[in-house]
Amino acid sequence: MICFAFLLWVVPTTAMNLTYSQLPYRLNSIIGSLAGSWAYLFTPFLQVSLSCNRFYVLYFPFGIKILKRVPVTNLSISSAILIVTCVCSIGLQDTCGYVYDPNYFTWRPEGLPCSDQLGEVIIFMIFVLTFTSNSFNVATGARLLVNKMVGMNREEANRRRKRWMIMFTQSVIQDCLHLIDIINATWIWKLSDELWFQFLFLTLSFVVIYTIDGVVMFIFNADVQPAWFRKVIQMQPTRSSNVIIVSSKASTSNTNQMS
């Protein structure tokens, strides 16, 4: 959604040399709310869900009885959509939106009390979501480092542990991207009055984090990489192997039956 906002709104309006006053205010506000607030805030909620899912699988491999009949995935996505929609609907009010200003080539709040307060709420939510997601990631990483993998040889255990640590690193990087961008868009851009500096830490930072997010997924997931790319970064695809764990109780039972 954010990429489409740049492609179908930012680029045409900038190319036509339109000023901020020439843009249709309502359309500009709606696009800003969808791309600059809704999609921007919804992504960290998904990251929290993914981190929580990995935490749940490692710490509760057999599941929690109460949650087995609950559609947790659908419930979490629906809750995220509802929360983000409620927060971002405030931005549809007059003088409370997040708009694109071609005069300065930047996305910005409207600079009035309502938009400033909404911006503070979004900043707070980004910090909380990033902290929550990385808390799950740290707990997951600790579990991988401490726990001993049973039912497989050392080589297989090391390979699987390495794969999980790669996923852990990927998650941490992706979870921090929005935090870095919100810091750029809130404080860093104010360090200079130069237009190029503000463009770099506002508009460019806004779109680059999603490019980096895609690049990170591309680098850390060998299954989607073409052969030439794997040769460049010297990463070889790993083959999945099935591990059969035989419990001692079952073995004893079978031995007794045979005797």
Automatic annotation (TrEMBL):
Top-level taxon of origin: Eukaryota
According to its UniProt record, what is one Pfam family this protein matches? 7TM_GPCR_Srx
Alphabetical list of InterPro entries matching this protein = 7TM_GPCR_serpentine_rcpt_Srx
Q: Which UniProt keywords apply?
A: Membrane, Signal, Transmembrane, Transmembrane helix
Q: The 7TM GPCR serpentine receptor class x (Srx) domain covers which part of the protein?
A: 1-221
Keyword Zinc appears in the UniProt entry = no
UniProt keyword Transmembrane helix present: yes
Q: Where are the transmembrane segments?
A: 39-60, 72-92, 121-146, 167-189, 195-220
Q: Which residues form the signal peptide?
A: 1-15
Which protein is depicted? 7TM_GPCR_Srx domain-containing protein
The organism's taxonomy opens as: Eukaryota, Metazoa, Ecdysozoa, Nematoda, Chromadorea
